Amino acid sequence: MKKLNNCLTTLVLLFLPIMAQADTLDSGDTAWILTSTALVLFMTLPGLALFYGGLVRSKNVLSVLMQCFSIACVVSIIWVIYGYSLAFGDGGGLNAWIGGLDNAFLANVTRESLSGTLPETTFVMFQLTFAIITTALIVGGFAERMKFSSMLLFSALWVSAVYFPVAHWVWGGGWLAQMGLLDFAGGTVVHVTCGVAAIVTAMVMGSRNGFPTTPMMPHNMTMTVTGAAMLWVGWFGFNGGSALMANGDAGMAMLVTHISAACGALTWALMEWVKYGKPSALGTVTGMVAGLGTITPASGFVGPMAALIIGFSAGIVCFFATAFIKQKLKIDDSLDVFPVHGVGGILGTLFAGIFVATGLGGIGYANGLDMGSQVTVQLIGVIAVIAFTAIVTFVILKVVDKLLGLRVSDEQETEGLDINQHDERGYIL
To answer: What per-residue confidence (pLDDT) applies to 272?
Structure first.
């Protein structure tokens, strides 16, 4: 009996490291977030680059591809130096507003350090891809007219002064997280910030020469539809990966993401069919992106029926918002970043506060909140992020304009940014 006890004790001691590891590091979760990280980066390179590249005129296609590519590089370096630490670090007495610099240069991120059930390296890389695509989305607001040097400086300042603080407010334990804001994958952090930044930039810089009287049609819809398809697929990592686990929340997030995208695409196409007599490929893929952006903040909290309503609403609301911005207000948000991402992010963030209710198929309210109080929190979050983003973006634009000048000359704009900013052509004629 004593020998048997000794054997059992030995076996327990042998398996203790494995048991301890199973309680902390989860290989299934890690594999899923590694996959999601690749999918989200795939959304920017090549997805967003091709989507935006096809929408501009042929003389500017290379400049848009270059901007998306360069933003990925710039944001990555800044993330390592101080971005991750500011977004997800402990800011001490200022923690409600911004993180600290304890993790500057990823000082404490090692192979052994963990973030929940994930290696911290995996979490760092996953969150980096969100910072990249948020900053790159703003390109659509100033496409075809901003200097390349100014774009680099603006992107570096913007991700530092807008994205990192807002990410901390919502996901890093800041004041909006403490209030109980529901933003599963970036309705406020990603879509509201980039949408507001894009329309502020468009207003400060002014319209492209010839807008709105001269038609500025997409030069390559095949490229745009290809990029849109990549965005659709990559968005599964964007929303599903935000569960940070390979579990039911991730599965539901993927399901409702797909439902909303499909519903948004068909709704937008139907709106065009009714209004113009024919549905367009451009409208269909734009509706898809609207459906994706609108479901994003709610994706881990709601059920399939809510996704149908959210996607349908996105197709209608964003359709009319696009026409209102360009035709009524005559603001040259070149690639419709605000009416699609900004309006979609606002709509989805508010819907999250409604459809999270268990009676509507959601996971239910937390922290003692009910529908009224949750929607109030959602509204406060939306208003705060809009105001903060608008003010800081405006200041950054004025600083960049003072230092470098924001836009190219009229002659350079006519010639095209491919030649005068990069001395290359997207196409050899």
So the answer is: 97
